[in-house]
Amino acid sequence: MFRRLIALTSTALITGALAGCGNTDSWVEAHAADGWAAQYGDAANSSYSDVAGAEALELEWSRSVKGDLGAAAAMGSGHYLSVNAQTPAGCSLMVWEADNNARQRWCTRLWQGGGSSSPLWDGFDNLYIGQPGAMLSFPPTQWIRWRQPVIGMPTTARILAPGQLLVVTHLGQVLLFDAHRGTVIGTPLDLVEGINPTDSQRGLADCPPARPRCPVAAAPAFAAKAGVVVVPVWQPGAPASVLVGLKYNPDRNPKLAVAWTSDAVKAGTVASPVASADGSTIYVNGRDNKLWAINADNGKPKWSTPLKFLSQTPPSVTPSEDVIAGGGPDTRLVAIRDRGDHADVIWTRDDVSPLTTSSRAGEHVAYTVVADGEDGQALLVFDPADGHTVNSYPLPDAAGWPVGVSIGHDRRVVASTSAGQVYGFAPV
């Protein structure tokens, strides 16, 4: 009898434990890294991190990729950063140790031509990056994890749900991959007609300046709470680009379908769109020198506000929907508050010309690169509440133009230039 009681009790305990555990597979599925996982930080392109940013920094290291850069550094959940360079020879995709004087961990050479796309880190230090005609994934070492053919050059990839990787190419092909296996989930979409599928380099030179021969010149934005992916598309022969909204249904087939097309911005758009934290609004720069707010559900305009300059990089957006206009030559630092049906300018700094999108670390600190003297550049630390300067750090011998500022989960800050220079700052 005693033995029977032990057996019954053991069975009950095992059964209860199994029932309590349930399916725990989700933790091993790919998710975006805790750092600055890709260009503009997250899948919404918000350029916002909830890390409390450092007001005081010191330049720890600087090094060159010995080539060109078209996108900011991506920073993982640990201490790795990655850059996608365009180099005349040797390595182009590089992984460095941000906390160890940028010591190179590994590097490899990709087919050149896709410098405007940044790498994407997942939370397990796996890397995702495109090259003309292919999408690739690397494990924490340089050996290829998987490689799959695509039509065109992948823009910066996005993780939409655990294990599901979105890839949109510059020729308008939309694919959803199993991030672990590299297999395509469902049926790819084609947003652009009449594309030669064998010419994956067609129009690549038009992508950085967002000209007509590059149908998708910027990475999409994912409004997670609305389940909408928004892609800027310039159809062949069209007078301007439009926005296309794709409804994402992770539990249905097809998982991605066109929900709307919007020509609300008649002059066309510039740079990547940005999704609000609540998923209701898409912010985008117009070629008409205005910032536009678009309804994520239907593509209809909510409001537009004149900037009096052309922002060539996306705005940055906080969870409270405070917006800082994007950067570029002859721009100004401008902070805007979304009031729902209109926008109010909170403050403007006419004495500062931001050359990059403002990367925000929490509610009280933001970073951008500005012109410093006649030919120099500096990392500007400012308070987004009123725009006042907190600190400024020259970028020694900076050349070209800045391509972005990345913020690590450890409060490190990395600035990069088109001439291939990368500067690593640590909090003091």
Radius of gyration: 22 Å
| Strand percentage | 35-45%
Average pLDDT over all residues:
93
Identify low-pLDDT runs: 1-20
The counted number of beta strands is 34
Strand order of the largest sheet: 1-28-29-30-31
Structural class, from secondary structure content? mainly beta
What is the count of DSSP helices, taking H or I runs of 4+ residues? 1
**Spatial shape:** globular
Biggest sheet architecture:
5 strands, mixed
Helix content: under 10%
User: Roughly how many Å apart are the termini?
Assistant: 69 Å
Oligomer: single chain
Describe the structure.
This protein is mainly β. The chain contains one helix and 34 strands. It has one helix at 2-21; strands at residues 48-49, 57-64, 68-69, 74-75, 80-86, 93-97, 103-108, 120-121, 127-131, 134-138, 146-149, 158-161, 164-168, 173-178, 189-190, 221-223, 228-233, 242-248, 256-262, 269-275, 281-286, 290-295, 301-306, 316-317, 322-324, 333-338, 343-349, 359-361, 365-372, 376-382, 389-394, 402-407, 413-417, 421-427. The strands form eight sheets. It has a five-stranded mixed beta sheet, with no helix packed on it. The model is unreliable at 1-20 (pLDDT under 50).
Give a short synopsis of this structure.
With 428 residues, the chain is mainly beta. It has one helix at residues 2-21, and strands spanning 48-49, 57-64, 68-69, 74-75, 80-86, 93-97, 103-108, 120-121, 127-131, 134-138, 146-149, 158-161, 164-168, 173-178, 189-190, 221-223, 228-233, 242-248, 256-262, 269-275, 281-286, 290-295, 301-306, 316-317, 322-324, 333-338, 343-349, 359-361, 365-372, 376-382, 389-394, 402-407, 413-417, 421-427. The model is unreliable at 1-20 (pLDDT under 50).
